């Protein structure tokens, strides 16, 4: 076998395996549901840590604030950009080591330490310590039926120590495409996440209370959309209506080119059209959840044995964009109340969304790569299709 993608298994074998998985599927509340709830709370707190400054900075720099209990800061737009980007300075450098540590020690201890360092995470850490687990095999209070169901769903995975094929990985066209599309996504996503409250305050003229509620609306819609798109993607691929590769590229295109169109529309929203602007922002963020069925699970498609390291690499590169984006916005905006300057911000994000997804459509793949196993051993296609639950971001 050369350095080419592994040929897919037959549709007959896939159908047989789906029938087997359905037969052994346990009923009722199980360990897998407890893990899902704990991970939901984990991500909830992780994202709260990321976005609290985006909302707080609106009040911190509000020159019209008459409340003497809260000090305001006379920060320029460039200074605000530096403050908003500061979270990612440390975030970037931990990505690759974290991927390696997760493969060596398992995800339980890493999540315990990272979330346990914040006050709200202390209660979660206690629950996670007692109820979290690295794998079904290590979990003590799991039924044999549920253990077999989860392990069959996860498919084959080599748990032996494998040397990371750095050169092959970093010179692989699908991996490079993954790095680029992840970076493009983060530029647009974090531009909106960090700057949306400022835009709503200065351009749309919304007060702090309405600003906070409407800034949260797009992300609530994003959550709702992910609950719909995830089973839809699984249905289309599991029933054979779409190939896995086409499905990844289709949903990724929806998740990046959809927001691109919304941002272009937002650039031309007439002054005073608050409802239209909020609607476009909601669309731009909401349908971005489709990327969870695109590039964000593609690491597992390409090399499940190295998915943790791959996520560390792509997330490290992508989060360089996360702190560059607010800095660029601060450089572009001399006057945060000027819609013409915001138009430039939206154009930049739309262009990056377009070209980032275009190269993923051209060069991206969803088949297991030869370097997944030691010395390029022959391997079969993954015995399941990763879904939104496996997108760790």
Question: How would you classify the helix and strand content by structural class?
Answer: mainly alpha
Beta-strand content bin: under 5%
| Strand and helix order | HHHHHHHHHHHHHHHH
The tally of helices reads 16
Q: Give the low-confidence spans.
A: 1-14, 378-385, 387-393
Amount of helix = 55-70%
The oligomeric state is: single chain
β-strand number: 0
Which second-level CATH architecture applies?
A: Up-down Bundle
Instruction: Average the pLDDT over all residues and give the rounded result.
Output: 79
Largest sheet: none
| CATH level 1 class label | Mainly Alpha
Structural domain count: 1
Roughly how many Å is the radius of gyration? 22 Å
- Report how far the terminal alpha carbons are from each other: 33 Å
Q: Output the CATH topology.
A: Growth Hormone, Chain: A
Please tell me what the overall shape is: globular
The CATH homologous superfamily: MFS general substrate transporter like domains
Transmembrane segments: 37-61, 109-131, 173-193, 213-230, 250-269, 276-295, 307-332, 344-363
Biased composition (Basic and acidic residues): 375-384
GO molecular function: symporter activity
Main location: membrane
What this model shows, in words?
Keywords: Membrane, Symport, Transmembrane, Transmembrane helix, Transport. Residues 374-393 are annotated as: Disordered. GO terms for molecular function: symporter activity. It holds the Pfam family MFS_1. The protein has 393 residues and is mainly α. The protein has a single domain (11-390), classed as Up-down Bundle (Growth Hormone, Chain: A), CATH 1.20.1250.20. 66% of the residues lie in helices and 0% in strands. It has helices spanning 11-24, 31-60, 77-85, 87-93, 95-105, 107-116, 121-131, 144-154, 166-170, 173-202, 208-238, 244-266, 274-286, 298-302, 307-332, 339-363. Helix 6 packs antiparallel against helix 7 (121-131), helix 10 (173-202) packs parallel to helix 15 and helix 11 packs parallel to helix 13. The protein starts with 10 loop residues before the first helix and ends in a 30-residue tail after the last helix. The model is unreliable at 1-14, 378-385 and 387-393 (pLDDT under 50).
